[in-house]
Design brief:
Organism: Epicoccum nigrum (Soil fungus)
Order of helices and strands: HEEEEEEEEEEE
Strand content: 35-45%
Helix content: under 10%
Distance between the termini: 41 Å
Oligomer: single chain
Strand order of the largest sheet: 1-9-6-11-4-3
CATH class: Mainly Beta
Protein name: CBM-cenC domain-containing protein
Keywords: Signal
């Protein structure tokens, strides 16, 4: 029986640059961003504050990937309208590992004014032949915007995310958004993941 993967409890820039911690603990807010505990609402309609959010440009920067365990060296932006959720590009990765593995995509320098409520999200699709589960979580400054699961055999796109309120002072030029996918293990064929249309929009 496949085990449900554990998702990271926090994601901050220093972890993205060094290591990814997997834990079952609930997300702990940082002093700069607080989760919104209100019931889900309709999507926010502000402009997307990210650069290359749909991976339509072949240049990965300013996105920073961090892979833990064995991944195919061909991971990166795939320019294929048929594979993308929208537009012409998508971030694609194939995990070759049968043991716990994770992948984080982050973008720093997101300009969000303190006190503003934003919605952060990503569209994710997975594929695996072992019937297992891939966990997905979206973060803003280490605080979870939302978590979801992609199960083996389900190849449709899933939107993962939610609303948070940015706390602190100033314009917040240094916010960091992160998308993390993780699995406790997989069969011999590994598992695949597609990430597209990541967003941080004002409400």
């Amino acid at each position: 029986m496949a085990r449900t993967p554990r998702a990271p409890s926090r994601l901050v820039l220093v972890l993205l640059l060094s290591a990814l911690t997997l834990t079952t603990a609930a997300p702990t807010p940082t002093p700069n961003t607080a989760p919104n505990t209100a019931p889900p609402q309709s999507s926010c309609l502000g402009p997307n504050l990210l650069q290359n959010p749909s991976f339509d440009s072949p240049h990965l920067s300013p996105w920073l990937p961090l892979a833990v365990s064995a991944w195919s060296p061909s991971r990166g932006i795939l320019l294929s309208p048929r594979a993308a959720h929208s537009g012409s590009g998508v971030y694609y990765a194939h995990c070759l590992s049968t043991i716990p593995a994770s992948l984080a995509l982050s973008q720093a320098g997101v300009a969000v004014q303190a006190g503003r409520e934003v919605e952060c999200f990503a569209w994710v699709r997975g594929r695996r032949g072992d019937g297992g589960v891939t966990a997905v979580e979206v973060f803003l400054d280490g605080v979870s915007c939302g978590r979801g699961e992609v199960r083996g055999g389900e190849e449709g796109w899933a939107r993962v995310g939610g609303r948070v309120r940015v706390e602190g002072e100033g314009e917040g030029e240094g916010r960091t958004v992160g998308v993390v996918v993780a699995s406790e293990g997989a069969g011999d064929g590994g598992w695949e993941v597609w990430v597209d249309d990541v967003g941080v929009v004002g409400c």
